[in-house]
Amino acid sequence: MTNGGLIAISGLIGVGKTTLAANLADILHAELIREEYDLNPFLPRQISGDTRAALPLELFFLLSRARQLNPLKMIPGKTYLADYIFEKNRLFAELNLDKHDLKIYNDVEQSLLPYLAAPRIVIYLTNRLETCHQRILSRGRDFEKPITLEWLVRLHEAYETLFRDWDKCRLIRLDGATLDLRRNETARTVARLILQDHHISKFP
């Protein structure tokens, strides 16, 4: 059990963030915060090629994540575990929006930044890009069908740039290629790394 706060998992689509987050949340008795991608009404329009959907798509995710990470909705002393970091919004917006739409996005994002819970620990999960792309193809989600290996390369480079000089909180880097994230023992090993933070107590 932890002494509360937010732990966030970051990484490429298909890298295993949600699988690891769910297992860790169970071990650490944390409340799981999952992305609400299935609630985004603009995804079908984006899939169909409607370029006008790009900005409302990104704004929906921005506002959804800001609502989920609102510290006023978090119980003091309780641990929360998110399968994303808020900075993900910025990476996707810069990849998907033109200059005009990005300006609008920036204005909305800046108004939200003062009202977000900051993570105590971020786990950056990586894997081979080809492995992530194959997982995306295998699970067959409609909204992920447009994702190409070339686009994943660009997203990977954006994440690497983000974490190169990361100093907002403790960062744990994990190579998913060497881990079976479906195994409970893997999650317990990661939990032990989290518990190295002297503010966090042991789990059963």
Précis, in short:
By secondary structure, this protein is an alpha/beta fold.
Describe the structure in your own words.
- With 204 residues, this protein is an alpha/beta fold.
- The protein has a single domain, classed as Rossmann fold.
- The protein has helices at 17-27, 43-47, 54-68, 88-96, 99-112, 129-139, 149-164, 184-194, and strands spanning 5-11, 31-33, 79-82, 121-126, 170-175.
- Helix 1 crosses helix 8.
- The radius of gyration is 17 Å and the shape is globular.
- The model is unreliable at 198-204 (pLDDT under 50).
Note the main attributes of this structure.
8 helices; 13% strand
Which SSEs are present, and which pair or pack?
Blueprint: E1 5-11, H1 17-27, E2 31-33, H2 43-47, H3 54-68, E3 79-82, H4 88-96, H5 99-112, E4 121-126, H6 129-139, H7 149-164, E5 170-175, H8 184-194
Parallel strand pairs: 1-3, 1-4, 2-3, 4-5
Helix pairs in contact: 1-8, 3-4, 3-5, 4-7
